[in-house]
Amino acid sequence: MVRPVWSGAVSFGLVTIPVKMLPAVGDHSIHFRQIHTVDEGLVRNRKVCALDGKELSNDEIARGYEITRDQVVPLRDEDFDDLPLPTAKALEIEAFVDASEIDPIQMGDTYYLAADGQVASKPYALLRKALERTDKVAIAKYAWSGKERLGMLRVLDDNVIALQVLHWPDEIRSPEGLAPPSVDLTEDEMTGALALMDTMARDGVGDEEDEYRNAVEKLIQAKAEHRPPPRAEHEEQPRGEVVDIMAALQDSVDRAQEARGETGKDATVHEMPKKRAAKKAPAKKTAAKKTTAKKTTAKKTSRKKPA
Q1: How far apart are CA 45 and CA 63, in angstroms?
Q2: CA–CA separation, 80 vs 143, rounded Å?
């Protein structure tokens, strides 16, 4: 198991639950180093004092807050350890709310909370059962890495409590002005979109792969073996053309069914609407014109005097 990144206690009223916080997600990204383009030498980031030009080690570096350009207040780790905060060494539960009240845009990284020692087992189980029975999540405050944070405690399927980092409400930017202008949608277009959603529906996220990472790994391997890297075949994308939404939806449904090995006989909740034939112009007016023309001709004929 990965190493804990934080240890303290969950404060549930007068109940204290010693816990350790462990990352729930690992990073599988490929990390690069900076190199000199001329000789491929590694570029190192050295920390140098601006006053004496001396290169510093991490033990010689502390934090400082710049009040003005000429005044910096030095701050050390022990200064933060003695802050008069109830959340300095505890996850202080503030309230219990319905999970639906938390906007997903507010959610950040996820951590597992593990009971720290045998003494923590019973209060840990008590909080977990209470969250399960009420179908609620707990909102908590805690201090970590130099600042107070907001978090949400929720129960996972394997009886583990997870801490979901939450952004503070004032950190969420307003989306005002980002929505496109209002447009009129036909019922056929909505039915087509729902048919596509039916075709693409499934349970869970699935087993998607990071195709970019796989491609970069193949690129690195090819470069290391001094052979040409694989190249993608780029399809020319049409630009500046008006999209036929119904045609695009139908094509998307066909491709999705083909990818899943389905055929047109498979039942779906919504079916793509059939293209409606263009209405023919009514022929009554033309017929009426012909009838009127015949009557006029007949009148003229009857008016002619016999020779």
Answers
A1: 18
A2: 10
Per the structure block, which two tokens stand in for 4? 């804990």
Q: What are phi and psi of 213, to 5 degrees?
A: -65, -45
User: Per-residue pLDDT tens for 48-70?
Assistant: 998 899 999 988 998 899 999 88
5-44 pLDDT tens trace: 888 899 888 889 999 999 998 888 888 899 999 998 999 8
Q: Are 119 and 12 in contact (CB under 8 A)?
A: no
d(CA 116, CA 124): 9
Residue 255 phi, psi (nearest 5): -65, -40
pLDDT bracket for residue 223 (50, 70, 90): confident
Which CA distances in Å does 192 have to 261, 265, 266, 272? 20, 17, 16, 5
Residue 49 token pair: 């004092």
- The structure tokens listed for 8 are 């303290």
